Amino acid sequence: MLRDRLTEEMKGAMKARDDIRLSVIRLIRSSVKNREIESRHELADGEIIEVISTLVKQRRESIRMFGEAGRTDLVEKEEKELAVLLTFLPQQLTREEVESLVAKVVADCGAQGPKDMGKVMKAIMPHVAGRADGSIVSAVVKEKLA
């Protein structure tokens, strides 16, 4: 289970005195705990992956914004945190893999053009959840339907 892995990784980070890894794991655990309090049930691995995906998305946005502001010190910190977060997600899909999945889903749905984008996104997201960034999937779907 992912919850057990987080606990073990946290212990390892404490022993190794890896401050960045430790702080990121604590952030994940607290975010998971907050989501459990909101939903009033213990999260399954899939739901924990959703929480981690949200944190990854936040880090990527922060990196973009800090980069635009010229804050390289903060960009480096966020990139280190992002690298740790990505170790807890399933293997990420390449753009080519996303393109082939989108092509398959478009064919299965019978999508004709941009008006069917919502239908395609709804069908493909369960297949790529936690394994691909939603903005990349959305861009590929737009390209295929254009």
UniProtKB/TrEMBL annotation:
Source organism of this protein record: Geobacter benzoatilyticus
Q: What is this protein called?
A: GatB/YqeY domain-containing protein
**Which parts pass through the membrane?**
none
Gene3D superfamilies found in the cross-reference section: 1.10.10.410, Uncharacterised protein YqeY/AIM41 PF09424, N-terminal domain
Q: Quick one: signal sequence residues?
A: none
